[in-house]
Each structure stands twice: as structure tokens, then as C-alpha cells.
Specification:
mainly beta
């Protein structure tokens, strides 16, 4: 847990929940998601009153985890800042989750990636760019491999979204990573002649 701020490494990006330099009880390098329009024209509105804080008692690694208490009325959203990506790589998105099975029976957590082009325009969302986690039996590591990127993708932003009907859902998230993987391209044109 030596690293306390988001940083790029040779393996990819690491987004810990270790620091709250401004003492607002909210993790540094993350912010609440802003409302935005969906492809169908509807607006996805996020709850601004949900309790989101660092927790030093329930954690997978380091000093803190992210603790979210959802009241179930509206989705809760968090996101990182936008960061530069390597368009000629594949990626693996991973995080540890601890979702209380008693209080969170009807709650899900979505971890995913928003892609942006070189002009910082949001690219269309794809299903392979995120994954859904329901209640867990303690800490569980979840991963999603992203093997192809839009040829226009130059930047990315990670997001966490909590949705559900439970009025006291308790969720912990820790050790969010966005690691590069080798991209293998096989050209079969020469073999088929």
C-alpha cells in the first residue's frame, strides 16, 4: 500500500483508496459522477446525498477501502479523472469487492471504462467495457478483459456505479486496477492464399 495516489505503472493504472488530503472523507483522485444523457435521450441522474467515504476498518489491502452506503433511490456514481491510454494494447480491469449479502440483496455494482477520442469526446459505451457484481461472500476479486478498443480511443476514465432497491446497502471496493495486456494480432491473409 505504499502508493497512495493514482499512478501509471508499466503494468497499467492503479487507483487506490488510501488518501484524503483535503479531509473531506472522500477519496482523492475520484469524484462523484455528473448526470449525463444516454444514447436513448434519457438522462442518467446520480444521487448526490449518498454516503461515500474511506473506511480503515474494512479493507482488502493498504490503509483504506472505499465504503458506499446506498439508499436505493437513485444510482450512485464515482469516476476517476481522464487519463491517456495506449490504443495498441489490450486491458484488464479489476477490483476487490465486499458487498454485504444481508443489506444488499437487490443491489449491484458496475465497474467500467468510458473511452474518449483525442478531442475528449465520449465514445459510445460497449457491453464488454464493464462488469456487474452482486453480493459477495466477503472480499472477492473480479476482473474484466478488454481485448479490443475503438480505433478512436485515446483517453479513458474508470467509473463505479451502484444501483438497486435496498435502503441500507453496504458496499466496499478496494484496489482498482486497469492493467495493460499484450495485444496479439494474427494476420491470416498470407496463410489462406
Amino acid at each position: 500500500w505504499r502508493e497512495s495516489r493514482a499512478k501509471e505503472t508499466k503494468e497499467g493504472w492503479y487507483f487506490p483508496f488510501e488518501q484524503d488530503a483535503d479531509s473531506n472523507r472522500f477519496p482523492d483522485d475520484w469524484s462523484r459522477s455528473k448526470n449525463y444523457k444516454l444514447a436513448d435521450g434519457k438522462t442518467l441522474a446520480f444521487a448526490s446525498w449518498a454516503e461515500i467515504k474511506l473506511d480503515s476498518k474494512v479493507k482488502k489491502a493498504g490503509r483504506n477501502s472505499l465504503h458506499i452506503i446506498s439508499q436505493g433511490a437513485q444510482p450512485i456514481g464515482l469516476e476517476t479523472n481522464i487519463f491517456k491510454i495506449d490504443n495498441f494494447a489490450a486491458y484488464e480491469l479489476s477490483s476487490w469487492f465486499n458487498i454485504d449479502p444481508i443489506t444488499s440483496k437487490h443491489t449491484k455494482v458496475i465497474l467500467g471504462v468510458h473511452w474518449y477520442d483525442s478531442e475528449m469526446n465520449l465514445l459510445p459505451q460497449r457491453t464488454e467495457d464493464n462488469f456487474v457484481v452482486f453480493h459477495t461472500g466477503g472480499w472477492e476479486l473480479k476482473t474484466q478483459r478488454i481485448n479490443t478498443l475503438s480505433e478512436n480511443a485515446s483517453f479513458a476514465k474508470l467509473f463505479i456505479r451502484v444501483e438497486g432497491e435496498d435502503t441500507e446497502a453496504k458496499i466496499w471496493v478496494d484496489e482498482v486496477r486497469f492493467n495493460k495486456r499484450p495485444l496479439v494480432i494474427i494476420n491470416t491473409k498470407n496463410f489462406l492464399n
